[in-house]
Design a protein that fits this description.
The chain is an alpha/beta fold. It has two domains: 124 residues, 3-Layer(aba) Sandwich (Rossmann fold), CATH 3.40.50.2300; 169 residues, Histidine kinase-like ATPase, C-terminal domain (Heat Shock Protein 90), CATH 3.30.565.10. The protein is 39% helix and 22% strand. It has an eleven-stranded mixed β-sheet with strand order 2-1-3-4-5-11-9-10-8-7-6, with helices on both faces. The longest helix is centred in the middle third of the chain and has 23 residues.
Length: 306
């Protein structure tokens, strides 16, 4: 991470222990200067005294969701009224899926799990502040991991790419994780061909020269990471969150619909999914499968659009 400047962040949580934990992990990271608030009301007062007066302005506010009197969504609403340009993020120790509908209604696209690895939390906040280190599979694996790129030119090549990655993963992942990985590869790979470029799903497609699709994969000591890429740039963060909400809070029409649940299934079955979007330029979906057999029900919500 670029540490040429120090990022001043405000951490809001009603738990003293959690505040101390996050103050420690950010305080021990070069390039961060954390302050804390024990409630939404205190955070707003701090912003009024320091940030709005330019006395000691903040680069980022990270707030817990589930707090008494003023929850995280109310904090974000108040912050947007005070300073629409201040970047914000949310964090929770509960199941993120319980907040997906509220996130959609409020336009929140990143919710971090408190149980995540501290390095991942710091990296996510840094990315939300700067926009750096979002695109590129190398940002999601240990330095030095070999990244293998497979160009996909047609539907047959997609099948071959999926099989190649599955062969590489077979000795590293258990049966459930292999199933999750294959589902994610097929769903996101299909989206990259059919939905990104407007082809009829199920048809045999040969991509035009301008219609690039690629799969990249890499392994480090702890995980397998895959990137599914296209250069359409047609996907939006609102559509991603809408599709996730349809999977988590389906209507009767959603339940009988033939498709539209690919991103939900992928996020449910993979250990971590990151969606990176550059409007009209490129889409990158990162799938991460840890080699450990642990399965975490609560997954972070990570949708980045630049």
């Amino acid at each position: 991470m670029n540490t040429d400047r120090s990022f001043h962040i405000l951490i809001v949580d009603d738990s003293r222990t959690v505040r101390a934990f996050f103050a420690d992990i950010f305080g021990d990271t070069p390039g961060f200067r954390p302050d804390t608030a024990a409630s939404g009301a205190e955070a707003i007062e701090i912003l009024k005294q320091n940030h709005l007066t330019d006395k000691d302005p903040y680069d980022f506010l990270l707030t817990d969701i589930n707090m008494p009197e003023m929850d995280g969504f109310a904090v974000i609403d108040a912050v947007k009224e005070l300073d629409p340009e201040l970047k914000t993020g949310m964090i929770t120790g509960f199941n993120v899926d319980d907040y997906i509908k509220m996130a959609l209604d409020k336009g929140v696209f990143n919710i971090i799990c408190k149980m995540d690895d501290p390095e991942d939390i710091v990296r996510t906040v840094h990315n939300l502040i700067t926009g750096d280190h979002i695109f590129g599979l190398g940002n999601y694996v240990e330095p030095g991991a070999e990244i293998i790129r497979i160009q996909v030119t047609d539907t047959a090549a997609l099948k071959g790419a999926v099989n190649r990655i599955m062969d590489a993963a077979e000795s590293k992942l258990n049966e459930d994780k292999l199933y999750g990985l294959k589902t994610g590869l097929v769903e996101m790979g299909t989206n990259a061909i059919y939905h990104a470029y407007g082809y009829e799903k199920g048809s045999q497609v040969t991509l035009k020269e301008s219609e690039e699709v690629a799969l990249e994969y890499a392994m480090d000591s702890e995980k397998l990471a895959v990137a599914i890429l296209d250069v359409s740039g047609t996907l939006t963060k609102e559509r991603v969150l809408t599709q996730l909400n349809k999977g988590i809070n389906p209507t009767h029409e959603d339940l009988i619909a033939a498709g539209g649940r690919g991103i939900y299934l992928t996020r449910f079955l993979c250990d971590k999914v990151v969606v990176n979007l550059a409007s009209r330029q490129r889409t990158e979906v990162i799938l991460i499968m840890n080699f450990s057999d642990d399965y975490k029900e609560s997954k972070p919500l990570l949708i980045n659009q630049i």
